[in-house]
Design brief:
Na+/H+ antiporter like fold, mainly alpha, globular
């Protein structure tokens, strides 16, 4: 049974994943300036639309998908948990490749990461409790929102603050570090996911087929939902691309940390997050390739 399956993932592996994600977040943060935040405070509409798309629309669409598909409890909670996470670390790179507003994407990642301290545990608890099979897991694990908030804070917000500070005080050092650090951190993260999959390959093969279709549909809903909301809000094509990608690229690495830190590495949840980590990169890069064929109107 998938709900009883537990992946092979040690405490030291979890610490390593925490460290990798912190480095990835730091590499994104050194692209940010305080001026970027000030611009968005003066003209916040694209940012607000993006955050609504991420933290309200995507979890709600995920819950509807769960109601329609009626997956096993751990799979349902895995989908809900991934949808509750902030935008993924590669969203900024993909937005740049797509010819979208990369500054908006980076700022959305920053604001969403800070907001995730409250909104991620809140969304997991709220939407997870509305589907009875996943509600049973939540009751059994008694997830502590404060502990989740502390985990998110140390792993994502602290590197964000340090990166912005470095860029403000030592911009020449930040400029030298930016490119190599982003490629290095993403390479380490991909290698980590590959090694984790290799250690659990038999479980992944046994259960991934049924999960793959759900993850692909879930990701498509995220991208389509972000695009639709940005279009209805009247955003420019330049901003719309950023919101679309930011909604469809989720921080599945954070999802894995939460799954192993708070749910004991429950098989269905972990396989959902791991497959998300692979698939959203494929779909995001493919979409960026299509978008980049035409310059975005600003």
């Amino acid at each position: 049974m998938m709900d009883e399956a537990v992946l092979n993932f040690s405490a030291s592996s979890l610490m390593l994943l925490n460290a990798i994600l912190a480095i990835v977040m730091f590499s994104i943060a050194i692209d940010l300036k305080l001026a970027d935040f000030r611009v968005l405070v003066k003209a916040p509409k694209p940012l607000i639309v993006g955050l609504v798309s991420q933290f309200l629309l995507l979890p709600a669409m995920t819950f509807l998908l769960v109601l329609v598909a009626q997956p096993q409890a751990s799979v349902a909670l895995g989908l809900i948990l991934v949808a509750a996470c902030p935008g993924g670390n590669i969203s900024n790179f993909i937005t740049h490749r797509a010819g979208g507003n990369a500054a908006l994407s980076v700022s959305m990642t920053g604001f969403a990461t800070i907001g995730a301290i409250v909104l991620t545990p809140l969304n997991i608890a709220f939407w997870g409790s509305l589907y009875e099979p996943s509600a049973q897991i939540l009751r059994a694990t008694a997830i502590d929102p404060v502990s989740v908030a502390i985990t998110v804070g140390f792993m994502l917000v602290l590197p964000l603050v340090l990166g912005v500070t470095l860029n403000a005080r030592r911009p020449e050092l930040a400029a030298r570090l930016r490119g190599p650090l982003q490629w290095l951190s993403m390479g380490i993260f991909v290698a980590f996911v590959v090694l984790a999959l290799a250690a659990n390959w038999s479980l992944f093969l046994a259960f991934a087929r049924g999960i793959a279709a759900l993850v692909i549909v879930h990701n498509a809903l995220g991208l389509a939902g972000g695009f639709t909301l940005a279009t209805l809000a009247g955003l420019s094509q330049f901003d719309r691309r950023a919101v679309t990608i930011e909604t469809g690229i989720q921080n599945s690495g954070l999802g894995l940390v939460l799954i192993f830190g708070f749910f004991g590495g429950l098989g269905g949840m972990a396989i959902v997050a791991a497959f998300w980590g692979i698939w959203h990169a494929i779909s995001g890069l493919a979409l960026a390739g299509l978008m980049s064929r035409r310059a975005a109107a600003t």
